[in-house]
Write a structure and sequence with these properties.
Layout (H helix, E strand, L loop, with lengths): L1 E4 L7 H17 L7 E8 L1 H12 L7 E5 L18 E9 H11 L3 H16 L7 H17 L5
Parallel strand pairs: 1-2, 2-4
Antiparallel strand pairs: 3-4
Helix pairs in contact: 1-4, 1-5, 3-4, 4-5
């Protein structure tokens, strides 16, 4: 598992390690080998996340996190379909730190927990999950909470 961060917006080592652990747990929970998987993580300000949200989702407002999957659910190549030492990029995660800070304060937990939660949420989007129906939302939330619990970051 490799996480690619923007050089100028890399989180501290502890948060980076938690993000990697969250991604590994999510992938293993889906029966995937995390070894060849890569994804990029960017931290942006309110205006940039708003611009991205407007451009890619048609929603003209800021948000906390955006996910840009490279595959639809069930279409991610299997490890045996990869060449030796080939990376499997699954997508991009873009997090707005300012919104994270506000939400962490609102929910009464640390900014680090909020970042890890939003990242975990996005990883599941990259793996093809969504929350368009109540059933899908409940399934996705259960998977997110399982990962957060494994990291000791439950609510």
């Amino acid at each position: 598992m490799i996480l690619y961060f923007d050089e100028d917006a890399r989180p501290d080592e502890e948060t980076s390690a938690l993000l990697e652990a969250a991604a590994v747990a999510a992938l293993k929970g889906e029966g995937m080998d995390p070894e060849p998987v890569t994804l990029s993580v960017s931290f942006v300000g309110r205006e940039e996340i708003r611009d991205l949200n407007k451009t890619y989702r048609g929603v003209d407002r800021q948000t906390d996190v955006l996910s840009f999957p490279l595959y639809e659910k069930g279409c991610i190549p299997a490890e045996e379909d990869l060449e030796e030492d080939e990376e499997l990029a699954i997508g991009d995660v873009v997090i707005c730190e300012e919104v994270c800070e506000a939400q962490a304060k609102e929910y009464g937990h640390s900014v680090q927990r909020e970042i890890v939660y939003l990242f975990t949420h996005s990883v599941f989007h990259l793996l093809g999950y969504d929350h368009e129906t109540e059933e899908d939302k409940a399934d996705m939330r259960a998977r997110e909470e399982e990962v957060m619990s494994l990291l000791g970051l439950e609510r």
